[in-house]
Design goal:
single chain; alpha+beta; six-stranded antiparallel sheet; 7 strands; about 10% strand; elongated
Length: about 375
């Protein structure tokens, strides 16, 4: 595709998804928002019915508000990744505890059976007066019985030894399973606490962001959105200005195409932290579900996707690859071609298309090897 066409397409991609994410306390937020400017008094000659004009605060003041919102939503995204990771761990640990409990129950049944066998042997010995079988044979009157019974004695001795060893192993296994279950329970509880702490932080940051935005008048919110678009467009233009699209000619794999088809089919669905569909998604919920639908499961969080998936150079990027954003890998989008990604931006937004270079790129990972 020619560079001219890429430029036209890039200009057409409006980055609705400012993936800005979180971090400052509420008192500083209040100072970032200027007090509303009172409407100008009408001139003496103006008609009594004329509407006074509203003066917007300077762009630098709105930029300060935007920076504050960016930090808040960034903090929420980081906390969302922590929440999702804790949720995955608790789910895995719960399944492992269930499996260990099953093994404990089976081990206990096995141990009970071995004890029953040992008890039966003890009762048999009691019935014979407590004499060992070899002594009983030696006291018998029939030599043939003695020699035939000697073999049975050896078998009995081996069986007794085997029974003792098997019982000891069963007891050891049972103890190991119980110890593992206890360890998993401790990890499960720690995961639940981490999950609860992350959830609390997410809600706090989103609430602070919403309260800050609520203080803006309609025209201020519109201007703020315009400033966000301008910033995204500048970042995308700078990225395209490197000539990167002239180097991108990779073709999507079969599984990559299926992942892209799934992700783009979710356009317009709301962002919701911790969500994996089908009605709402967060950023890594969208990408992980897209690749799961394509038959290639990937880690749940953007940070785990960055750590565990194969890294590829940006110039080798192809549709279906995942672009990881920000230095802490707190956001992810799926490359769909022509310098564009599909992603779930942040609370209050929907799954949308955006310029791949509209946010700071940490790197690119590839879920498949086709």
């Amino acid at each position: 595709m020619g560079r001219g066409r890429h430029s036209v397409l890039a200009a057409a991609v409006t980055v609705v998804c400012a993936v800005t994410l979180l971090g400052a306390p509420g008192t500083a937020i209040a100072r970032a928002l200027p007090e509303p400017t009172p409407p100008a008094a009408p001139a003496p000659s103006a008609s009594p019915s004329a509407s006074p004009s509203v003066t917007l605060p300077p762009d630098k003041d709105l930029q300060a508000v935007r920076a504050k919102l960016d930090k808040l939503y960034h903090d929420a995204a980081v906390a969302t990744d922590a929440y999702n990771l804790a949720a995955e761990k608790t789910k895995k640990q719960s399944a492992e505890i269930t499996d260990l409990n099953r093994k404990i129950a089976e081990g206990q049944l096995r141990l009970d059976g071995l004890r029953d066998r040992a008890g039966a042997a003890a009762r048999a010995q009691y019935r014979t007066g407590g004499l060992p079988p070899e002594v009983q044979l030696m006291l018998g009157n029939d030599p043939q019985d003695f020699f035939e019974g000697a073999g049975r004695v050896l078998q009995s001795q081996r069986a007794t030894k085997s029974l003792i060893e098997e019982t000891a192993r069963a007891q050891q296994d049972l103890k190991l399973y119980a110890d593992d279950a206890a360890d998993h329970l401790h990890m499960l509880e720690a995961g639940r606490k981490a999950k609860a702490a992350a959830k609390k932080r997410i809600k706090q940051r989103i609430k602070e962001a919403e309260q800050l935005e609520a203080r803006l008048e309609k025209r201020q919110r519109e201007r703020l959105a315009e400033l966000e678009r301008q910033a995204s467009d500048r970042a995308q233009s700078a990225w395209l200005g490197t000539g990167i699209l002239d180097e991108l000619d990779g073709k999507a794999s079969a599984t990559g195409r299926r992942a892209v088809e799934f992700a783009t089919a979710q356009l317009g669905k709301p962002y919701e932290w911790g969500a994996e569909g089908p009605g709402t998604y967060d950023c890594s919920g969208l990408t992980s579900q897209a690749w799961a639908a394509a038959g290639r499961p990937v880690p749940r969080t953007s940070q785990q996707q960055w750590k565990r998936l194969r890294h590829v150079d940006i110039k080798d990027m192809r549709p279906g690859d995942l672009i990881i954003y920000f230095g802490d890998a707190s956001h992810v989008g799926m490359y769909v071609g022509d310098g564009t990604i599909v992603h779930a931006p942040r609370p209050g937004r929907t799954v949308t298309l955006a310029g791949a270079g509209s946010m700071p790129i940490l790197g690119v990972v590839r879920p498949d090897t086709d």
